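User: Structure please.
Assistant: Input sequence and predicted structure:
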Amino acid sequence: KIEALVQICVDPSSKETMIREIRALIEGGEELNCQNLIVATLDYQSEEFVDNKKIIFVPLYKILLGLFTI
């Protein structure tokens, strides 16, 4: 079973980048039946809802240090 999909994006501040990363996660989540959608970033942290799907943006260092668990 797939626990989460993680997309890496250094800087999601560009609208085009944000749209591309979110679209990829949503498509992958639907295809693989995975609801846990995460974008690992350099330092941006947020939760966004797109098409009734929650996308979590979290700094990569938090994942690597165990401060955020998938």
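Strands lie at 5-8, 37-41, 46-50, 53-59.
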